[in-house]
C-alpha cells in the first residue's frame, strides 16, 4: 500500500479514463490525494473523493499560476481557469466535505515572468496576497496546507515565518521540493514535511534527500506531470512506487520501510 500525497486526477489529462484508473489504483492498494489548482479543479477533486468510501481524498485551493494576472504570461487557458484572487466564501462550501484533507496547492511561483518590473511586482504582490488569504483559510478550516514554491523560496520562507510567528504554525508539506540544504533547513524549522516526486530524477537532490528526517518525508507523483524515467508522457499514482524505490536507494534504506514511514507521515499530517 502506498499513498500518493499529490496527484491531479481531477485534471483534464484524465478526462477519458479517470474512473477506471482510480478503481485500478485502489484495487492495487494505491491511495491518493487529488489536489486542486483553482475552483473547478478543487470541486472536481471533492466530487471524485466523495464517490469513494476510502482511499481517495481532496485538497482545495488556488495555485499561484491560476491567478488572473498570470493569464497572459503563462499560456492559453480556458475561460474559468483563472481567478482574480482567493474568494474564501466560494471555497468554504467545498471545505464542508469530510473528504477534504488539505488546503492546496497554494504558494508562490516566479517561473513565468512578465516583461516589466512593475508587472513583476504586481504579480508577486497578487500571489502573496492569495497565499496569505489561504493561510487564513487553512486556519479557519483547521486543515493542513500543501505548498507549491518555484523560484521564490526566499519570499516563501519569509511569509511563512512571519505568519507562523504571529498566529502559530500551520502543519503542511512543501511539495515537489527542489531547494538546497539551506532551504530544507528553513522548511524543517517551520515544521513542514517535504514532498518528493519524479523531479528527483531530473535534478540531483541526493544530498538534500539524505538530510530529510524520516518522519518528514512524503511521497507523491504530481501526476499527470513529472513521469519518472524511463517512463514518459502521462504520469500516474502507481508510479509513486518508483519514487519510493529511488528515495530509499539514495538514503540506503529498505523501500518497504520507507514507504511504511511515508504512509504514516501522510496519515498523521492529513488525518486520513
Ligand atoms: Zn501539483
State the gist of this model.
The protein contains ten helices and eight strands.
- CATH fold field value: TIM Barrel
- By CATH, the superfamily comes out as Metal-dependent hydrolases
Please identify the top-level CATH class.
Answer: Alpha Beta
pLDDT < 50 runs, ≥5 residues: none
CATH architecture descriptor text = Alpha-Beta Barrel
Q: Distance between the terminal alpha carbons, to the nearest Å?
A: 14 Å
* Content of β-strand: 15-25%
Alpha plus pi helix count = 10
Largest sheet at a glance?
A: 8 strands, parallel
Q: How many beta-strand elements?
A: 8
Order of H and E elements: EHEHEHHEHEHEHEHEHH
Radius of gyration from CA coordinates: 17 Å
Q: In one word, what is the shape?
A: globular
Cross-sheet strand order for the largest sheet: 1-2-3-4-5-6-7-8
| Small molecules bound in the structure, each named once | zinc ion
- Derived structural class: alpha/beta
**pLDDT average, as an integer?**
94
The percentage helix is 40-55%
- How many structural domains can be distinguished in the coordinates? 1
Amino acid at each position: 500500500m502506498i499513498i500518493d500525497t499529490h496527484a491531479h486526477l481531477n485534471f483534464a489529462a484524465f478526462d477519458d479514463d479517470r474512473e477506471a484508473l482510480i478503481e485500478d489504483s485502489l484495487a492495487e492498494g494505491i491511495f491518493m490525494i487529488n489536489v486542486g489548482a483553482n475552483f473547478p479543479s478543487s470541486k472536481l477533486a471533492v466530487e471524485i473523493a466523495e464517490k469513494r468510501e476510502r482511499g481517495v481524498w481532496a485538497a482545495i485551493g488556488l495555485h499561484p499560476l491560476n491567478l488572473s494576472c498570470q493569464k497572459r504570461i503563462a499560456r492559453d487557458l480556458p475561460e474559468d481557469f483563472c481567478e482574480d484572487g482567493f474568494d474564501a466564501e466560494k471555497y468554504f462550501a467545498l471545505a464542508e466535505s469530510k473528504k477534504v484533507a488539505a488546503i492546496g496547492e497554494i504558494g508562490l511561483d516566479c517561473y513565468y515572468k512578465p516583461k516589466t518590473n512593475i508587472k513583476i511586482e504586481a504579480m508577486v504582490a497578487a500571489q502573496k496576497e492569495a497565499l496569505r488569504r489561504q493561510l487564513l483559510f487553512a486556519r479557519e478550516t483547521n486543515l493542513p496546507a500543501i505548498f507549491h514554491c518555484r523560484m521564490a523560496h526566499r519570499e516563501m520562507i519569509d511569509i511563512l515565518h512571519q505568519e507562523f510567528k504571529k498566529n502559530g504554525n500551520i502543519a503542511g508539506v512543501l511539495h515537489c521540493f527542489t531547494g538546497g540544504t539551506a532551504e530544507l533547513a528553513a522548511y524543517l524549522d517551520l515544521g513542514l514535511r517535504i514532498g518528493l516526486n519524479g523531479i528527483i530524477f531530473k535534478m540531483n537532490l541526493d544530498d538534500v534527500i539524505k538530510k530529510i528526517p524520516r518522519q518528514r518525508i512524503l511521497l507523491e507523483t504530481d501526476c499527470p506531470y513529472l513521469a519518472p524515467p524511463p517512463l514518459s508522457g502521462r504520469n500516474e499514482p502507481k508510479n509513486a512506487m518508483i519514487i519510493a524505490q529511488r528515495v530509499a536507494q539514495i538514503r540506503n534504506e529498505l523501500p518497504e520501510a520507507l514507504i511504511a514511514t511515508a504512509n504514516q507521515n501522510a496519515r498523521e499530517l492529513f488525518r486520513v
